[in-house]
Specification:
The protein folds into four domains: about 1-95, Rossmann fold, CATH 3.40.50.20; about 120-185, 2-Layer Sandwich (Dna Ligase, domain 1), CATH 3.30.1490; about 190-320, ATP-grasp fold, B domain (D-amino Acid Aminotransferase, Chain A, domain 1, 2-Layer Sandwich), CATH 3.30.470; about 325-420, Glycinamide Ribonucleotide Synthetase, Chain A, domain 4, CATH 3.90.600. Strands 10, 11, 14, 15, 16, 17, 18, 21 and 22 form a nine-stranded antiparallel beta sheet that branches. The chain has a five-stranded parallel beta sheet with strand order 3-2-1-4-5, sandwiched between helices. Strands 6-9-7-8 form a four-stranded antiparallel beta sheet, with helices on both faces. It has helices spanning about 10-20, 50-60, 70-75, 80-85, 95-100, 105-110, 125-135, 160-170, 240-260, 295, 305-310, 390-400, 420, and strands at about 1-5, 25-30, 40-45, 65-70, 90, 120-125, 140-145, 155, 180-185, 190-200, 205-210, 215, 220-225, 230, 265-275, 280-285, 325-335, 360-365, 365-370, 375, 380-390, 410. Helix 7 (about 125-135) runs antiparallel to helix 8. It starts with a strand and ends with a helix. It has 13 helices and 22 strands. The protein is α+β, with helices and mostly antiparallel strands. Belongs to the GARS family. This is Phosphoribosylamine--glycine ligase.
Length: about 425
Amino acid sequence: MKVLIVGSGGREHAIAWKVAQSPKVDKIYCAPGNAGIAEYAECLPITAMEFDKLAAFAKENSVDLTIVGMDDPLVGGIVDTFEAQGLRVFGPRKNAAILEGSKAFSKDLMKKYQIPTAAYETFDSAEAALAYLENADFPIVLKADGLALGKGVLICQNLDEAKEGVKEIMTDKKFGSAGNRLVIEEFMTGREVSVLSFVDGKTIKTMTSAQDHKRAGDGDTGLNTGGMGTFSPSPFYTDEVDDFCKKYIYQATVDAMAKEGREFKGIIFFGLMLTEKGPRVLEYNARFGDPEAQVVLPRMKNDLVEVCEACIDGKLDEVDLQFEDNAAVCVVLASEGYPVKYDKGLPIRGLENFKGKEGYYVFHAGTKFDGDTIVTNGGRVLGVTAKGENLKAARANAYEAVKWIDFDNKYYRHDIGKAIDEA
């Protein structure tokens, strides 16, 4: 088989690494890819949003399967473009990817089908939002309706912060058109857990649990980022929690989308909050999480290509999804200043230290070649992942592996998975 992967981050590197293990596959392309993905795939000078060019390439080169890693092309309708050309593609169509593309849509869906989530209101104008906040309880959560690279969520402790947040999102358009609508949500407390799942339109199979760390600084301080690290499994995701979610959240979401005429095939990422009243949905994503993919895929026993094909063909019920009985931790190495301002083009040293070391991986997020040298090319540069027999061992291994790599202005959190010690 020939497989095309759409995207350029650490998630797509993890997907390419996993696809490369499939005995079915003998050629991988990635558009546009990065320096790490180039080890497994031929990287193409086509961006993720050039749907017609991507589809034409897939057709001309007899690509058997395309896997879309990123949210923007999914929400933009890349799957519809490929299917119109008779091409096999893994991911939700545009009318289903709205589950991630519009927070207002997803909240309304949960309300309609009684899927547990936080109370909320939706606003189309800053004036209406500000009027509502005058009588609101704090803390409170503001969410840009559209895609904002995982950063369009503000937790406001008081009215002044909330007013400034409305200004940032709706007036100043800090997140662009994503802020044309605003969701204001009750603040929930508890442990956050990420659960990724495969969906074929009717059947859903969940992957192992994980937990992301969104804030830039140690102790969950600083600005929101795309994710500074993650661990899997979550010790807080118990059998009791799993039973509740299967009954009231997972299948209910798939069925709700089907009833709305928005059949969902691909990945649904459930961002959950484990509250005193039980699990609640924080958000949905319509693709693998990044960096969650970097700890979930290394623990997955199945052939990823086979599972993707089963989802496309509506045969997921025939798949026995299995994960290793161990743990994994990923620490993101970023450039100092991320997520605001940072330097690019800095040479990366020590990548060769991962060669031949079983259970240790380095997934490239923002890298490129400068001649023969691999240099930094983004805020999040690398995801250093390690496995271990349990979470504490995996965490120790990951932080040991962080020392193997260096580049100027290297920055990372020192407390990824620290919650493990408290479990």
